[in-house]
Amino acid sequence: MKKKFLCLFLCLSLAGVFSGCGEDLFKIQGKVYDNPSATYEDSITTDENGYQTYSKKISIDQKPEITNISVTAECSGNIKDECDIRANYPANAIVEQTVGIIGSPVEISADDTVKNITLTLTYNEDYLRGVPEKNIFPMYVDYYNSIWQIIEDFELDTDKNTISFPAKNEAIYLLLDIYQYGTAMGMEVSKYAYENDITLYKSDWERERDTGDIMKLADKKWAVGNAPTFHVSTPQQLASVVYYVNAVNEQPIEVYLENDLDLSQYDWKPMGWNTTYGANLIFHGQNHTINGLNINCHGIQDVGFTGYARNIIMDNVNFTNANITGWRYVGGFSGECYGAKKFTNVSLSGTIYGNDEDTGGFIGSGGSGICTNCTLDVTVNDKPCRYFSYDDKFFMENIDETAFTLSVNEKNRVQRTKNEKYNRIDWAIYDGDKPLLKRGAETETEIKDSVWEYLKAEKGKTYTIYMEAYKINSDGTSGYTRVSNILEYIY
After folding, report:
1. Rounded CA separation 481/342 (Å)
2. What stretch(es) of the chain map to CATH 2.60.40?
3. pLDDT (tens digit, 9 = 90+) per residue, 403-448?
């Protein structure tokens, strides 16, 4: 019996600032490109009402769920000449990493002569990886205006494995598992809940990336059964943790290293490979050593022991003879991390290779961290590196103390001079070594009393203040650096 579902769902728009997205080989921020490995076979038909249907059979190994894209519309000319439809994988990172995405994003670009468009996507249920068909929902994406909107009405035909819905002339569309997406967005989607053994299916990471020796070593059942706290005694168990983060990643994890590990014979890969599957890691080394961490990821960004990390807190561990190679955002312990970064009694020795920009010692990109009793003995691109991160390197090597002068005026307010050279400037306020606030100063020439009230500053206490600015050098390197004297201010 033919089953059809006509679904009405509350539209959800997401607008905001997304971070941690950069360029890779086929991906440029704000633009989307055809996958050079995708194959197409197209056709055109016309029905008795004069509507033309333009169809493309598609095949993308990394995203095999969607097998056909069809546009049915009114068109005075040849619809193939007036309309472009394509699977957009790899897509912009923000689009591609939407939680619960099924298959490749699909883009439509049509002239105004194409009207009343219906988009039909055909899916292969064998590649749904346990997602119930009733959970498939379409989403409209207007990336440039930061709109992610679940489509209000659509028709799902589970006999033909198709989903159809009205479409715009210029847009990107996704198919979603509404349970995964809704859960992540805090929506009430309990009626779509289902039991699923994720270890039975190949993950996005396995389909889209080189997993090296990780999946040869990993025990999926052990990983899922022990999460979120892992006691690691062998390379196999550490590989299982990497699998868990890169394929499941349901919650922050905590790792206790129970033995010294020698990884020198293995082709290792980063833990945390994009913003959706980022490492949120607390790692207790318990005074053990990990030797011979070899990660070779030519042409890949976010490379290190963790690749993309939300947080990384590590203590009492030594990494010796590490050899790490990547493209952008490369570091010993994290390629890219914008959350907590705290290291206590941690040492790292070895070699690191990557783009000169965004390659560092402990961290590639993501700012400074807190290091206590830590040692760094590495070369970055064959040069000794003494910096925690690339951000620290740029900061220290590009200080311009004369750009702005800070002083205290008669009202006991901190004031700055003007300099038209910089237009992205911040007040940086510290309590000793503890950062308290970074506040945009483009329109402020003094720190207002309300700022100190917000910080609950203590009368008579001394605070450290300087100006930071974003600087672009003639060689194309860029980052934040100090652009003023350092002022010790008594509140």
Report:
1. 21
2. 398-490
3. 999 999 999 999 999 998 998 999 999 998 888 999 999 999 999 9
> What's the topology of domain 398-490?
Immunoglobulin-like (2.60.40)
Contacts for 186 with CB less than 8 Å, ≥ 6 apart: none
Contacts of 475 (CB under 8 A, 6+ apart): none
With the CA atoms of 360, 366, 371 and 374 taken in that order, what torsion angle do they form, in degrees rounded to the nearest 10? -20
Spatial separation of the C-alpha atoms in residues 34 and 423, rounded to whole Å:
37
Which residues fall within 8 angstroms of residue 107, CB to CB, at 6 or more apart? 32, 84, 85, 86, 88, 171, 172, 173
Burial class for 219, CB neighbours closer than 10 Å (0-12, 13-18, 19+): middle
Q: In Å, how far are 19, 313, 341 from 310, measured between CA atoms?
A: 11, 10, 9
Please choose, from the candidates 296, 284, 243, 291, the residue with its C-alpha nearest in 3D space to the C-alpha of residue 264: 291
Strand partners, 378: 350, 385
In what helix (H) or strand (E) does residue 11 lie, and over which residues does it extend?
A: none
Per-residue model confidence as pLDDT tens digits over 164-217: 999 999 999 999 999 999 998 999 999 999 998 999 999 999 999 999 999 999
